Amino acid sequence: MKLAILGVAHVHAKGYAQICKQLGDVEVARVYDRDAEAARLVADVCDAQPTQDVSACLGPEIDAVLICSENIYHSTLVRLAAAAGKHILCEKPLATSAQEAKEMVAVCKEAGVQLQTAFPCRYHPTITRTREVLAEGVLGDILAVRASNHGQMPGGWFASQALAGGGAIMDHTVHVVDLLRYLLDDEFASVYALSAHRFHDIEVEDAGLLSLHMQKGVMVTLDPSWSRPASNPTWGDVTMEFVGTNGTLSVDVFAQVVEWYRTAVPTYQWAPYGADMDALMLADFIERVRAQQTVRVTGVDGLRATEVVMAAYASVASGTVQPVLQETL
């Protein structure tokens, strides 16, 4: 299978290129970005041809594309890829508005191509086991969830309203929202959100707190803040504590780490071990495209997460609880 990478602005672009090279039966043929040097750096990782011409990545020899551009360009690149008949794995958030995400889903459906949203946490063994425990019912009825997706401020275009569409809420709400939809088989009904500038001199919010209700009555709090300093031993976390009528369950997705001390800067880091969820996601996407099967995490999943983000921003602007409005497909 031959792939192309469209846009390399996202931090995962180079990692995806490395994974694809390791898969053996997959070739990244071309890497596109408007920035020629950025495209070259990622292309060198996987022995691909860099280009500033997106059409060069959409020829008949390309089977699928990985979209890793700035958020604001996701929609345009998805439309171009769909028109060329290419299957698509698109970075999160799928879009910077619910309407845009809905249109992306519709365009891909009409073109008969797969659209997967990059939510790799679904593939992590910790999440697989969490889903099994919840399905077993040992916790009784789930009443509430306390969750976090803290992180370091990524910098660059992530801190640009024009390119990212928002800050920490845009960047870090979608992962946990998608996990809870998946784990609890439920949708979100409403959200009350607060945002602030607390840690960095940037134009988008770096702090947020969301209080959400799901349709079956589960209450959720989520902290998506970019509150981790540069000295933090890792980029951030994904945690969830489920409170049930018969017990509680604490989940830390990235707890498999080795403490690493060295003389170089930074002197202290966490080195993760165990499953590579990005590699699991890419391998599954490629296998399902080959088998002409529906991808595991669809564009609709990306749309539903985007809808929660948009409701959160509406709540911040109004100071009131806002309904999560689901687009009809």
| Coarse morphology | globular
CATH topology of the largest domain: Dihydrodipicolinate Reductase, domain 2
What is the CATH architecture annotation of the largest domain? 2-Layer Sandwich
What percentage of the residues does DSSP assign to strands (E)? Answer: 15-25%
Structural class: alpha/beta
Which CATH C-level class of the largest domain is it? Alpha Beta
Classified in CATH, the superfamily of the largest domain is: Dihydrodipicolinate Reductase, domain 2
Number of helices: 9
Q: Give the rounded overall mean pLDDT.
A: 97
Roughly what percent helix? 25-40%
The biggest beta sheet is recorded as: 7 strands, mixed
Q: How would you write the strand order of the largest sheet?
A: 12-11-7-10-9-8-15
User: Count of DSSP E strands?
Assistant: 15
Query: What is the CA-based Rg, rounded?
Result: 19 Å
Distance between the termini: 31 Å
What count of domains describes the coordinates? 2
Order of helices and strands: EHEHEEHEHEHEHHEEEEEEEHHE
Low-confidence stretches: none
Concise structural overview:
The chain is α/β, with parallel strands linked by helices. The chain contains 9 helices and 15 strands.
